Structure formats: C-alpha cells, structure tokens
From TrEMBL:
Lineage start: Eukaryota, Viridiplantae, Streptophyta, Embryophyta, Tracheophyta
Protein name listed in UniProt: Uncharacterized protein
Organism annotation: Brachypodium distachyon (Purple false brome)
Superkingdom of origin: Eukaryota
C-alpha cells in the first residue's frame, strides 16, 4: 500500500521529467512560485506556541518526560540497585529514584558528556513541544535546535530527500551547458523538487529549499571537473594553474566556475579544502590509465574529498531518528 502511494505521488506530484523539459525559464519560475506558496512556512507564529510551563507544571514535567534522560542514561551506563547490586530496569528505576532524588542528583547530567544526545533544557520549558522536539544530538545542535521538527516531520524529510534526489539525477547530464541553458534546467529541477514536496505535509519550506540546495551543490559534476584537470595535467603535462585556467576560460562547468576561479588564482580557503588541495586525491592516478578507468577512480577520490564536518540536515535527521528509537521516544 505504501509503495502504491509513493508511485502515485511520483506520477501526480513530480510529473515525468520529459513533460517538464519543454518549459522555458520564465514558465518554470512561474510554476516554482506557485508550488512554493503551497509549502508550510514553518512553526506557528502565535503566542501559544511559545508559552512556557509555569513552576507546578515544570515539576510535573520533571516527574515524567524530562527524567527520560535519566532513565536512558541508566540504560546506557547501567547503575545497580543499592539494595541488591543488580542492574536496573525502567520500572525499578522509577521505584528506586524518586523525583526528589533525581533533582538532588541533577538528573545525572554528569553522564551527558558521555552520550551523543541530550534533552535541551530551554526547549524542555516550551509547553507546545514534545519530547522528540526537545531531543538533540550534540553535533550541530545549536544550529538545528530551532527547526522544531517532529519525528513525523523528520521521517518525511528523509523520505522526501531520497525521492527528490532520485528524481533530479537527470540534471547531471546537463553539466557543461551554457549559463542560459543551465539556469533553465536548474529551475525545472527545482520545480520537480517542489512538486514532490507538496505531497509531504510535515516538512517546512526552509527544509525543502535546504534539501534541494544541498543535493544540487553535491551533484556529480565535480567528478567531471577533476577528470578534465587530470587529463590536462597527467596526460598533456600541463601545470595545474594553466590547466584550470583553460577549463575556466572555456566555461566548461558554469556551476563550478567560482571554485575553479579560486583554484586558478591559488586562493586559500579558510573553512574547506580548495580544488587545488583536493587534486592530491587525483594526482596519484597513473597517466597511462584509460579515461574510463580514471573516471571510476575519480568518483572514489571525490568521495574522500568531502570533509567529515560537512553534514546536511538529512544526516542529522537520520541520526536523531535512530537515537529516538534507541531511547524509547
């Protein structure tokens, strides 16, 4: 049943790519605006959404949702019953560690540094949020904490990203076209992404935009960039800078021109490796290697170039959902 729903969504929502490719830039953008307006703008902007618990409610909350952290902490780092020395289960924990003890022990937050997740103290005061929305992973939590996504929202986001990414893979074949053509195809891909997104009702507008941007920015065109550099440097015996300058002047990869220009100017980057730095992953490919074999090797090399810190919300959502399942939310 879920499979048929997905199929119906693809047919009725995204539409077939060939049915959209006839659109010119202006027509595609007009439809983009129409579909964009149908997306959820984000959390409600009413005062009730931002209400905080009063003190009696906070105490009741301490006795229920917030102590999940303590219970799950015990599961990760099992303590033993003082009376018997046996490991604790949830029911025993509730009997052994009453709210007053939990408060006295500061909810055992000394264990938090050993966990990869926590309940955000500030979000725990928000009356409109559920436990999943209060749960965060330590990695990038300050950046992602204000998304307020529910479990259902994250689950839809993961599904949307997978469906959207698969639907717009065709744009890889358009790399290298002139700027006017490229912008038209990019607008059509964005239109497809939005037509898919409106079938999901628990993800917000900013998340849809971010998903498309991250997916597009990480398209396979970098494989072709490094292949062209390798052909010039390894096979034609050009120096690196003249090689990238030639690629830039021929406007071979418009979406990557800014990166190629920085490499041509030997400009150091502060927060990520440059094209020149990353070429070290490719430079080791023997000059006698065939172009087809080199392409496969470069695909693997590009995977290694991606810095470990560069994560998307998709990575975060998948991890948070795993944590939520593990800790019983």
């Amino acid at each position: 049943h879920s499979g048929s729903i997905q199929m119906q969504r693809r047919e009725q929502g995204a539409g077939k790519t060939e049915d959209l490719l006839h659109l010119d830039f202006e027509a595609a953008i007009k439809q983009v605006v129409q579909y964009f307006k149908q997306l959820s703008p984000g959390p409600p902007d009413d005062e009730a959404f931002w209400d905080k618990y009063d003190e009696p409610q906070l105490f009741k909350f301490d006795d229920s949702a917030l102590v999940n952290l303590s219970y799950c902490t015990f599961l990760s780092f099992p303590l033993k019953l003082k009376s018997t020395g046996k490991k604790l289960d949830i029911a025993q924990l509730k009997r052994e560690y009453r709210p007053a003890i939990l408060q006295a022990e500061s909810y055992f937050r000394r264990y938090e540094k050993n966990l990869e997740w926590c309940f955000d103290p500030e979000l725990c005061q928000r009356a409109s949020l559920n436990d999943y929305q209060r749960l965060g992973s330590y990695a990038d939590w300050d950046y992602y904490r204000l998304t307020y996504h529910t479990y259902e929202g994250d689950a839809e986001y993961v599904s949307y990203c997978e469906e959207m990414s698969n639907a717009i893979k065709w744009i890889d074949e358009k790399v290298g076209l002139d700027k006017h053509q490229w912008e038209r195809y990019k607008s059509i891909a964005y239109l497809q992404a939005l037509k898919i997104a409106i079938a999901y009702h628990n993800i917000y507008r900013d998340a849809v935009m971010g998903a498309f941007s991250f997916d597009y920015d990480n398209r396979n065109d970098f494989y072709a960039v490094y292949l062209e550099i390798w052909k010039r440097v390894a096979k034609d015996k050009m120096e690196f800078v003249p090689a990238v300058k030639q690629i830039y002047e021929e406007n071979m990869f418009p979406p990557r021109n800014s990166d190629i220009k920085l490499a041509m100017e030997n400009h150091p980057l502060k927060f990520r490796a440059s094209v020149k730095d990353n070429y070290s992953y490719v430079a080791c490919i023997d000059e006698k290697t065939s172009e087809d074999k080199a392409r496969l090797l470069i695909i693997e090399a590009v995977k290694k170039m991606s810095p470990k810190w560069k994560k998307s919300y998709l990575d975060y959502a998948r991890k948070k959902m795993q944590i939520a399942v593990r800790v019983g939310l």
